[in-house]
Every structure is written in C-alpha cells, then in structure tokens.
Amino acid sequence: MRKLLFLPLLFLALTAKAQFFLAGGHFNGSVPVGKLKQETGSLFFPTISGIFLYEFQTAPLQVGLELGYGIYGSKLERRTDLYAGFSDELRLRRNNNLATGMAVIRYLPSVNTKLTPFIEAQFGANYLYTRYKIRETILSEESIESGKDFEDWALAYRIGGGIQIPLDEFLRLEFRATLQDGNSVRFLQRGDVSYLPDEGIFDYNFRRSPLQYMTFSIGLIHYDVFH
C-alpha cells in the first residue's frame, strides 16, 4: 500500500522538475490599420503587458497567457456648470482604457545562432471602457463623482513574430511585432464625449470598428523562472 501511495508522489515530483516556465513583460505601442485607421485616424494605443509561458521539452513550442492594459486617450476639462446651483470650478477627467487577455502559442525554429527567433499566434479578447472622475482639485484624495461611461468587448486574434537576444544565462531582451484583427467593437476616444449643461447630460459620439492594429513591443523574458 505504501508503494502504491509513493508512486503518484514520485510522478508529480518528476513532472514538476521537468517543467520549464518563462515569464516577462513588454512595453507595447499599437497603430491602427484598415477599418480602425479609417475610423480613428492616427490613434495610438500604448500598453504594458505581462506574459507567462510553458516550453515543451520535446518540441520547439511555447504556450501560455499574456495580459495587457493601457490608456489610449485622456481628457481633462475644468467646468463650472456640472451641478445646478454650484459654480465653483471642478476638474472632470475622462480616461479611455484598453485591457487584453490572450492565449499564446509560439514556434521556435532551430537556428545556429545565439539569437532566438520565434513565430507567434494569439487568440483572446479586448475589453474597452471609458471612465470619468470629478474632483475639486488635482490633490483631492476623494472624488465628488466617478463612474463608467461605456464598455464593450470583442474577440480578437494576432499573428506575428520576433527575436530574443540573450543578456545572461536566463534573461533575454525581446523585440516583437504582431498584427491584430477580430470582431467589431464600440468604443470612445478622446473628444467623443461632450457635456450638455442645459440638459445636464453627457452626449456620446460612439465609434465602431474591428480593432485592427499593428503592435511593436520591447520586453524582457526570464527563462526557467522556478530554477
């Protein structure tokens, strides 16, 4: 009986020892193409992302997950007409946010060099939302009012590739470029919301387009993070 109990524990220990994990982060900059460029012009999407990958020991493949976040537009208004009977100047800040979650698969071709090229495909979702906050001053810790103007999400996929440059035994500098396409999504960008003081409401000029953009990334990847 003791031998039967020992075998599963031994198998788990050997499996954990054989696992090979990578983790890192990227600074990303995305520029619109296709329908998104027609809808938004020169809108720029800056994001930061974290990536976690598992590398197969018997195949040149890595699979994992990448999560990203960024603010692609921000506008500050100083207004005295937000509340009836109150004429003090208030700060109205509105941010347009983008959050992404992508499953990742990478293929690493065999090359006779210290550099590591890779081809990458991703599939997941983009979540866009716009929030506002009203405060008395920039130093005010609490807001008078805050909320979410709008939110929407859509499925998306990315294809691309990159190259890794070794910095030491475990750390690598990574350059990457990807192209994203997917389903259409409604969103707001900077200047798409106006306030109608006579009616006391916000007026929204919604945009709709697939999130088609090119992303250029630079990051650091740590190999064998549980070493």
Word description of this protein:
The protein is mostly beta strands and 227 residues long. The chain has helices spanning 2-18, 34-40, and strands at 21-32, 45-55, 61-79, 90-107, 116-135, 145-166, 171-182, 184-187, 193-196, 201-204, 207-210, 213-223. The longest helix has 17 residues, at 2-18. It has one domain: Beta Barrel (Porin), CATH 2.40.160. Strand 9 (193-196) and strand 10 form a beta hairpin. The strands form three sheets. Strands 1-2-3-4-5-6-7-12 form an eight-stranded antiparallel barrel. This is Outer membrane protein beta-barrel domain. Keywords: Signal. InterPro entries: OMP/PagP_B-barrel. Residues 1-18 form the signal peptide.
Question: Gist?
Answer:
It is built from two helices and twelve strands, in the order H-E-H-E-E-E-E-E-E-E-E-E-E-E. With 227 residues, it is mainly β. Mean pLDDT is 90; it is low at 3-18.
